[in-house]
Amino acid sequence: MAAALLAAGALCRCDCDPDNLGEIRCEYTVEPHDQGGGGGAVDFGTIAVGERRTRTVTIHNTGSVPLAALEFDFSGLNGEHYGLGASMPTINVGDQISLPVLFAPQMVASELNHTVVVSHEPVQSVPCSAYTISLRGGSFARPDAGYDAGLDAGLDAGADAARDSGRDAAEDAGPFVPFADSGVPFDGSGAFVAVLALQDPRSHFAAAPVGDGGIVVGGGYGPNGGVLDSLERFDVASGRSEIVSRFAGQQGRAQLTATRLSDGRVVFVGGILPGADALAVPTGEALIFQPASSTLLPAAYGVSPRFGHTAVAIGDVDLLVAFGETRSGPGQPLQVIGDPVVLHLDARAPTPVTEAEQGAAASRAETTATPLADGRVLYVGGRDSSGTPLGSVVYFEAGQMHAAPLALAEPRYGHSAVLLGDGRVLVVGGIGAAERPLTTAEVLTVVGDPATWSAVTARDDLAPRLHPLLGAVDPQAVLVAGGGPASERGDAGPQRSRDDAVLLFALGNQLVMTAPGNGLAVPRHRAELVLQAERAIILGGSATTLRRSPLPSVESFTLSSGRFEDNNLLGPGAAAQPLTDGRLLLCGGIDPHTGTVTQRSRFYVPANESLSEGPPLLVARRDHSATLIDFGVVLIAGGVDRNGAALAATEILDLNGGLVCAGHALQTARSRHSATLLGDGTVLICGGDNPGGDAVESCEIYDPGDQTALPDDDTVALVLGFMSAPRSGHQATLLDDGRVLLSGGLDPARGVRRDDIYDPQLAALRPVSAAPAIARRHHVAVLVGQGRVLLAGGEDYNGAYIASDSAELYDAALDRYLPLPPLVTPRIGPAAILFQGGVVLLSGGVRPTSDNQARPTQALTASELFDPLAGEQGGFSAVDFPLRAPRGMAIALQVLDQPLVLFGESRDGRIAGGAEQSTTLVTMERFDPEAR
């Protein structure tokens, strides 16, 4: 076994020439950025002797030379109670890292304050700056020190003595006193905040650019079909979004319009108000968004109630609103309308638009409105009151609606249209006669005298798309992306939205089609595309038609790169590992843009909410593990390759030097396994699926060896014995005494209920002496303090696979399970965040909904809290901390005390017997204790 952790950078090395330093400036900043010290101090609070608490400082190299000899001097008064929680890396010029500072009191004292000196030796005789940081902490004697001393010391004797003492189990159970410093602080408040995405997942919404490089987004359908009342402002440069306003009375609306005026204001008009589909009624209200103050004010006048309409700015303070659908009251049939009107935002009454020719303003829905360069507005196609697609073209000019002397070759509705650089209009997609999805694109020449206007079918081989996204990314180039695969009407069941795209280049009457370098990160229908400079920003939408799963993610396309880019995670099967320098490593999985298993890695930095590319893996893989085995050194093990074959190969990412090298192969190829770093620097790898897709019952130990002496000194050996049964979908929980609890992961239908313990002192597996309540998998297993593990939820079997509300505590000292009250909500695959005091927040997950056969499974946003001091052993209560997006099978982890929830899927349910769909989420959320 490895006697100590690896030296940073020892596994993969290269010899490089030193940089030309030029003027030497040995300069850096040291910033303590943890909880509440005040005056630049770091406050650790008061904890028990023998416990540990970590805070962080950020070091930024602002000089001209790498910092290779930075030192923290803890030699002063009380310095023996403090230390660094990781080895000190070289900090390159311009880089910044976050380092953990450790407080581990060795004596009882109300004040163990210390001043640490941060310094660097001179560089070529040039002196370096130095800093002092005040550290504050205190300690007390733990009341149960005799019980827990063996556990904290990493010895088995204390635990064994407790198990063998002959004490009655019920007597031992007693009230639970959690560790004081487990997890992050929690005061009963906070909220989840979406990271690098929209705060509210939404489809059928409205968006418009604002003058500071942002986009205002409002309304739409949210999770489970609810109508949203929020407006948020998405900043394109940073990728951040913030809810800035709400519609009056918190009355949301969907299928509305957003139109930017010449002075930068944005006008929201109409939309359908909350209510069941047959009961929802539209509004004609107009609201003006002021970007400077992020306020939303009602306009003096509105229009007749409508939704799915068009709205175009004409002049500086006028808005042309036309067509759409309406309903006279709840439960009344929908009606297609015309009713064009000019809405004046200078407080004059609206002006009705008259018809120059009969039928020019006739009712139509799902049409397009395209402002032309000469001030006219062109309306193309749509459907009439009987649902028949229209081929007619009308236009607005000088206060009147005119019938154009041309028609589409194929009548259509649900299409999209865009103005080309030469003044022509491109029409793509939609639904034609007999509900047939169309594969044609038409180019309309609408320049000059309407008598000379003409239309031509430029291509007839496009993929069918309903409401495709169109963006003129160049005067001759149009991006065509996403869209729905078929009509939104009827009960055919949920159908997948499209995630592919093409580029169309208009050359005369010809359209040359090419494929971008990749596709959308997620399927999108009823999304919004906003052009900004040379980028097409694509926001939200729904992954399935009939608005089943709204999306929070945002991505962009640039013609210069020919590729889509996003500020989100890698796709399904990616591994996530927090690093001690304050970053989060994401690697492998399915690349969302290509749909293939990838070698990519990315870094997320919570300090500034940024993403960057990391070094590629040697082997493309998914469903693998990533384990930090030293500062910046990560073991990648197992997984599945691009051919679907399980892998035994391992590799080492040396992030200090950006290098990757192959490691020793596993004894058994496996994926979806657990990987646990043990106290001696080795990694315990257990269970998972073998190449045949069957669960594995073996464990093995990866030992990195002494890589400073020999570059290939790592070894892999099978653990003595086997687990009680093959496990996949299990949890591996590192206990206080260094042992590992392997829980669940068994097929509940088999009726086998047994967990296992790996003991590193014996290098062997043994079964837990008692049986858990159920044979759960995809459950929560959280060490909440004093050797107790919360086991909650997961999948169970009772004639069918069901979501469980069962919960219990595993007590390592007793080697038994203590019963707990049930969860508030049954959950499969929830995310669990540990807070100080052993409090655990359970969020999301998936549950069946037998009371609604139209949606047999549902991903949740709701949360509940486990309080270890509630009742005899602890209990659960519902809390108002919902996730921003419904997530099942998500994971929760902490990066320098920032709780994050990543990945997961949103279950789309079923409609009238259609096949059930699920939507993979490539976004993450952060729990912010200070948010409300």
What does this structure look like?
This protein has three helices and 73 strands. Helix 1 crosses helix 2 (157-164). Mean pLDDT is 88; it is low at 1-11, 13-21, 34-38, 143-181 and 851-855. The protein is mostly beta strands and 932 residues long. The two termini are 48 Å apart. The chain is 2% helix and 38% strand. Strand 49 and strand 50 (683-686) form a beta hairpin. The protein has a five-stranded mixed sheet with strand order 24-28-27-26-25, with no helix packed on it.
Summary?
By secondary structure, this protein is mainly β. The protein has a five-stranded mixed sheet, with no helix packed on it. Strands 1-3-6-5 form a four-stranded antiparallel sheet, with no helix packed on it. A four-stranded mixed sheet has the order 2-8-7-4, with no helix packed on it.
Layout of strands and helices, then pairs:
Blueprint: E1 28-32, E2 42-48, E3 53-61, E4 70-73, E5 82-84, E6 96-103, E7 114-120, E8 131-140, H1 145-152, H2 157-164, H3 169-173, E9 191-195, E10 206-210, E11 214-218, E12 230-235, E13 241-246, E14 257-260, E15 266-269, E16 286-290, E17 295-298, E18 310-314, E19 318-322, E20 324-327, E21 334-337, E22 341-344, E23 351-352, E24 354-355, E25 368-371, E26 377-380, E27 390-397, E28 400-412, E29 416-419, E30 425-428, E31 441-445, E32 454-459, E33 469-472, E34 477-481, E35 501-507, E36 510-514, E37 528-532, E38 535-539, E39 554-558, E40 563-566, E41 575-578, E42 584-587, E43 601-605, E44 610-613, E45 625-630, E46 633-637, E47 650-654, E48 659-662, E49 674-677, E50 683-686, E51 699-703, E52 715-718, E53 730-734, E54 740-744, E55 756-759, E56 764-767, E57 780-785, E58 788-792, E59 795-797, E60 801-803, E61 807-811, E62 816-819, E63 831-834, E64 840-843, E65 846-848, E66 857-859, E67 863-867, E68 875-879, E69 891-895, E70 898-902, E71 905-909, E72 917-920, E73 924-928
Parallel strand pairs: 2-8, 24-28
Antiparallel strand pairs: 1-3, 3-6, 4-7, 5-6, 7-8, 9-73, 10-11, 11-12, 12-13, 14-15, 15-16, 16-17, 18-19, 19-22, 20-21, 22-23, 25-26, 26-27, 27-28, 29-30, 30-31, 31-32, 33-34, 34-35, 35-36, 37-38, 38-39, 39-40, 41-42, 42-43, 43-44, 45-46, 46-47, 47-48, 49-50, 50-51, 51-52, 53-54, 54-55, 55-56, ...
Helix pairs in contact: 1-2
